[in-house]
Amino acid sequence: MQKVRIEIEEENREILRRYRGLLRVSQRSRSRADKLRIRKAFEIAMEAHKDMRRKSGEPYIYHPLAVAKICAEELGLDTLSIVCALLHDTVEDTDITLDDIQNLFGKKERTIIDGLTKISSVFDHTSSVQAESFRKMLLTLSDDVRVILIKLADRLHNMRTLEHMAREKQLKISSETLFMYAPLAHRLGLYNVKSELEDLALKAKEPETYEEIVSKLQKTQAVRTRFINAFTLPIRRALDKQGMKYEIKSRPKSVFSIWNKIHKKGVPFEEIYDLFAIRIILDTDPENEKADCWRVYSIVTDYYQPSPERLRDWISMPKASGYESLHTTVMSPTGKWVEVQIRSLRMDDLAERGYAAHWKYKDSPESPENKLDRWLSQVREVLENSSENAIEFIDNFKLSLFSEEIYVFTPDGELKSLPVGATALDFAFYIHSQIGYQCIGAKVNFKLVPLSHQLRSGDQVEILTSKKQRPKEDWLNIVVTASARQKIKNALKEEKKAIAEDGKEMLKRRFSHMKIDWLSANIDELVKHYNTDSSLELYYRIAKGNIDIKKLKGFQVENGRIFFERKEQPERISENTYVQSAPSKDETLLIGDEKQKVDFTLASCCNPIAGDEVFGFITVSDGIKIHRTNCPNAHELMSKYAYRVIKARWSSKEMVQFEVGLRFSGIDDVGLVQKITNIISTDMNVNMKAISFEANDGIFQGKVVVLVHDTEHLNSLMDRLKAIDGLLTVDRIESEFA
Ligand code: MN
Hints:
Bound molecules: manganese (II) ion
CATH topology of the largest domain: Hypothetical protein af1432
Radius of gyration: 31 Å
Number of domains: 5
Strand order of the largest sheet: 1-2-5-4-3
């Protein structure tokens, strides 16, 4: 008893210590009133969560305290955000209601916490709770951007403490992080948060690969430092001579971005470990910062030859996220390209802390905060016009996240930014929906171009319209912006509805002529017979003449009801039939176990073999597919369709063989092919299905498909192959090796 009491006292002291730590870093909450509000939120959260513990066994309050601390310290947010961060889990997990929050604090707090509360259940089974919650969070964006910033802080803390979760949860949370939160952080200009999220997700998904890259980075640290010192020496001397105040920083690429290069481009670590950017940060006045940055550029290029295609001037034209910097890539004396970033202290602060730092510098109408506002209002516009389900919604949102921009001018010389790939039609919709609907063409730099013409930065665009023009179905293939797409869809839907009305009238007349009652059962019968998705579609096709109701065949009419003879057609299989026959969520699918009578196939996108870490995914028409957890599609499947993911592992009894593709490269050498095939078929006794080799300019490349039992078997084969002299790389091919 005594011991327990001492532990609790110790815990309470720790909670207070953490609370004081929060106050210490809350730079923007210095007034007495601010401190009182934070204290009040802390006390309420503390009381509400007092009986709860985290998976790690720690008191739950550590979590909201940590989230609030990230908001204050790493994002530089205000008192309102800190209060909401402290309370962010109370409505979801405790007895506190949104009304309580409003009474105790205010309306703003209520709105933000509402946005942070997950929706409790899903009614629409085509979507996942996660997707719906994410959509809800984005919708609140139009009320207050702080919702998203606090949510990112919440996600960051959950990722930092992920090791206490069950393996499946870790994989799911990491997938969502890579799929939605990291791109979101990137778009908001929170580069530090973005790379930390990505690194933590990789660490959870592929711990061994992660550790391998980290340890290789540590081993190569000294080489990098020596190189950087030598490279920057002449620049430092020149800058000192001119009496400039500056700091030079360099950072290697993040573990995740190295992994991405290795994984996606097949480049070995040894070729990229020394890729890094050198950053020169100037301590200079806002009036001189632009000129000073160009002075430094001129010094750098006095010593090193720049690559003309790789000059990026985000000083004259900052990115939509507010990012300002001057980038150039120069050739070092050792023959390596080095990226040099030049910026002022103010620009660096904005780049590192994004939106959070914008508070400090909001002044001119061209301030980054205004740019961010403009972006937020564009996103908001898409949200307000959207009728699609959560998954389509997220896809559209991602569309606006990933796009880099181009800048074009109106005939009056006004500057507008659009995503790369935007067409004249996108521009028309961007100006005004009505101009979009009536757009028949455009003049780009005074030359006539079609609607589908892709715009480029610097173009001056004039839209030509006609009152007779109507939106067309194929316009959907022309536009790239989410908002234009949405407007076209809405207009088409309206038009379709109007046409369908005519079809409905035609059918009504036909029914009365044939003594068929106008009943929904009769219409359903026709919908089924013609296999249209809805009555709207049926009416539309009738009006368009695709369905000829004068020639109705093979039916009977009885008492005003119509019946068609059923054709021998397999029932359309609904998703639910599969869900029922599949193992339930908590069960694990044992692959290769005869007793489990569940059909599955191995996914061709990642070609799993026994021993790989895998999961099952219930598809709509193709039974259960087994994917590797590091399949390129895994993030998307797990984040969008979490409810269709089932646990799976390999049954050990079976001795099945799996096809695996291997890719080699090496120095062309007589006898190399012989050596490879000898090891495979003679030494390892492995069957080969297909083999191809190609030599070009002394470099040799090959592919082979082999049959192995499991990953252990595969790894020992790969180890033997790697030991061959002259063979430089041996990799497993993810997909499409057949
Ligand atoms: Mn939380």
